[in-house]
Design a protein that fits this description.
By secondary structure, this protein is of the alpha/beta class. It has three domains: about 400 residues, Na+/H+ antiporter like fold; about 110 residues, Rossmann fold, CATH 3.40.50; about 80 residues, 2-Layer Sandwich (Alpha-Beta Plaits). The strands form two sheets. A six-stranded parallel β-sheet has the order 3-2-1-4-5-6, sandwiched between helices. A four-stranded antiparallel β-sheet has the order 7-10-8-9. Helix 9 packs antiparallel against helix 10. It is elongated.
Length: about 675
């Protein structure tokens, strides 16, 4: 009967959840809020449809374990090292600030010292699940504020461990409490170190043998056993199962099988994780909202304000711009899922019970429900705050407009490219521009990267690409091209809008993730928008054609055709006559290609007239670049030198013959 009882409970939970979440989606409300409401409906304070709440709690804890496991996989040790400033400075300020303010407020409200500190613990944690889902949905996980938010969330998840260890000591304080804490933490740290070191050598070898079997089922079972096994071993050392799962994810993240492990675990994680939020709704007595409406509303407002101030202040302390601080503060304003686990420990120890426990649940659930809406308004609030800051200078200047100036000199550059963002796209573009001797400058908000790369002579500056002062400093009025290569959609839109206002003639290229952002970016002033979705589709079909041994020339021609026609459609081109000529073949064979002359090129030392490309191949040299200066329609008397870049116009066959004359030395003929 017990087995059938569990099955019946799961059937009720998922059936009601489907109905409620579907209804929430119709009104564009977050799914997590739907799960919380579903739990309240079927719980003992609602329709009382669940008979075994204990089993639901166990299944919900598995969901939290799987959640932290996937976070660990996606958040490698390299990424953790890159966030060391946030983990060491900003995150402790945020957590410590909330605890200190909540403790003072609790003492003022008449709580004991232990109870006040415990309330600080509860309120200092934020929801990893809600925030990560919102960042991923908006494409902001890799943005400046996204990385800062994730770094602080990781620290909060780690901070749960000492909080859980301290809770029994807060309940029954004694003279040996401090010694007991140190001993427990030392044992836990030693246990974790042994597990991590062992797993580091064992896990990759085990996965390698499992992968050779080519059995998906065996791979999935192995990943689940590693997740739960390392979590269980870590719990024996006095730490939480969830933290153990996070460590397991970090171990697997360093292997080449991490992406497949994530893909296999995701369906289980999402299913069990929904149970966690349903279980919170089940535990909450919604009648508390009617009994204490003023208390719940007041605490909710104060908590959101305190967490916003501490989160934003923590980010400002590491010199991130006010815009990022605003968005991080709002993202961290709610109460987290680990607070519920900690609250249950406090309830067992007598630190939180009865009406206070239910008030805490009500405030926490309400904060979770409104978080997605707050995060949607965050960019607009950040924009207004930044405008006020620029107008009145009431925030430290270096947080938004600071630029690392070399020896105090102003930039002397013209007809250059401005790159906003030094991620993968920005680095690749900067490398190519450097090799082709096209002048450029780069703006980025990662101070460590700026400091390191600028020491190697790269024109990389610390600055916000949405700040007019910064853009003027890098001579946007004299620039030819602006490339926005950052993953933050809001920042990209702002950068385009401001840059277009400062220089109406500049050519703006924007990288974006989704096609849905293309039209708005064009309206704001972008000339070219490169959606990753579209480019990925081109790369996929090109790879498929190569697999069928199609000629490389044919694959490239098809890719260019799709790219040319596809972007014309995406821009809703108003030039149907040109499109007709392209499709009809009038201009389909005419192409433009660039060629860099190396030291051994036969063209070096010859004039364009002596080279006689037009007479031999039908190809014309329409432009010529030397030392970063480009000249169109160069004179036939121009002598070509090594390092020059020439621009060729002709059909594909004509250009191919011309390239063979330019690039192949006489000895090779």
């Amino acid at each position: 009967m017990t087995e059938y009882g569990v099955l019946g409970n799961l059937l009720v939970i998922y059936t009601v959840s489907i109905a409620v979440v579907f209804l929430f989606h119709q009104f564009r409300l977050p799914s997590i809020a739907g799960f919380l409401v579903a739990g309240a409906l079927i719980g003992p304070h609602g329709l009382n449809l669940i008979s075994d709440i204990g089993t639901v709690k166990i299944l919900a804890e598995i969901g939290v374990v799987l959640l932290l496991f996937t976070i660990g996989i996606e958040f490698s040790l390299v990424q953790l090292a890159s966030l060391r400033k946030l983990l060491v400075i900003a995150a402790p300020i945020q957590v410590g600030g909330v605890i200190a303010i909540a403790c003072l407020g609790g003492l003022f409200a008449g709580l004991t010292t232990s109870q006040a500190i415990f309330w600080g613990f509860l309120l200092s944690l934020s929801s990893t699940a809600i925030v990560l889902n919102a960042l991923a949905a908006n494409g902001e996980s890799d943005s400046v504020h996204g990385r800062a938010t994730i770094g602080i969330l990781v620290f909060q998840d780690l901070a749960v461990v000492p909080m859980i260890l301290l809770t029994p000591i807060l309940a029954t304080p004694s003279g040996d409490a401090f010694t007991s804490i140190l001993i427990t933490l030392a044992k836990s740290a030693a246990a974790v170190a042994v597990i991590v070191v062992g797993a580091w050598y064992v896990v990759p070898k085990v996965l390698e043998h499992i992968v050779r079997s080519r059995s998906r089922e065996l791979f999935l079972l192995t990943v689940i056993v590693m997740c739960l096994g390392i979590a269980w071993l870590t719990s024996l050392g006095g730490l939480s199962l969830a933290l153990g799962a996070f460590i397991a994810g970090l171990v697997i993240s360093e292997s080449e099988y991490s992406h497949q492990a994530t893909a296999e675990v995701l369906p289980f994680r999402d299913s069990f994780n929904s149970l966690f939020f349903v279980s919170i709704g089940i535990l909450m007595d919604w009648r508390i909202l009617l009994e204490y409406p003023g208390v719940v509303t007041g605490l909710l407002f104060l908590m959101l304000l305190i967490k916003f101030i501490t989160g934003a202040g923590a980010v400002l302390s590491v010199s991130l711009p006010p815009r990022s601080a605003i968005m991080v503060g709002i993202a961290l304003a709610q109460v987290g899922e680990f607070s519920f686990i900690l609250a249950q420990v406090g309830e067992e120890q007598g630190l939180l019970s009865g009406a206070p426990y239910q008030i805490f649940l009500a405030v926490s659930v309400c904060s979770m429900i409104i978080t997605p809406f707050l995060m949607q308004t965050a960019p607009h609030l950040a924009r207004h705050v930044e405008a006020l800051q620029r107008l009145h200078h009431w925030l430290p200047g270096q947080t938004t407009a600071h630029v690392l100036k070399t020896e105090g000199r102003h930039l002397r550059i013209k007809d250059h490219v401005i790159i906003v963002g030094y991620g993968l796209n920005g680095r690749n573009l900067a490398r190519v521009l450097g090799e082709t001797e096209v002048p450029y400058v780069v703006l980025d908000l990662d101070g460590d990267i700026v400091r390191r790369e600028s020491q190697h002579g790269l024109p990389l500056y610390y600055g916000d690409g949405t700040n007019p002062t910064i853009l003027r400093h890098v001579k946007i009025e004299d620039a030819r091209v602006l490339v926005v290569a950052i993953p933050d959609p809001f920042t990209a839109r702002r950068a385009v809008q401001i840059a277009r206002g400062l220089n109406p003639k500049i050519h703006i290229v924007v990288r974006t993730r989704y096609l849905r952002e293309l039209e708005e970016l064009h309206q704001l002033g972008a000339d070219d928008v490169v959606p990753e979705e579209f480019e990925t589709s081109i790369e996929i079909f090109a790879l498929v054609l190569r697999t069928y041994n199609m000629p490389q020339d044919f694959v490239m021609r098809k890719a260019e055709q799709v790219r040319r026609e596809g972007y014309a459609l995406l821009r809703r081109s108003e030039l149907p006559e040109l499109a007709h000529h392209l499709r009809g073949g009038t201009l389909s064979d005419v192409e433009v290609e660039t060629c860099r002359l190396e030291d051994d090129s036969p063209a070096v030392g010859k004039t364009i007239d002596q080279l006689a490309l037009r007479q031999q191949t039908g190809t014309s040299i329409i432009a010529w670049t030397r030392g970063g200066v480009t000249e169109s329609n160069p004179s036939v008397k121009t002598t070509l030198l090594a390092g020059d870049i020439i621009v060729l116009l002709g059909t594909r066959d004509q250009i191919r013959r011309a390239m063979s004359l330019i690039l192949v030395s006489d000895s090779a003929n």
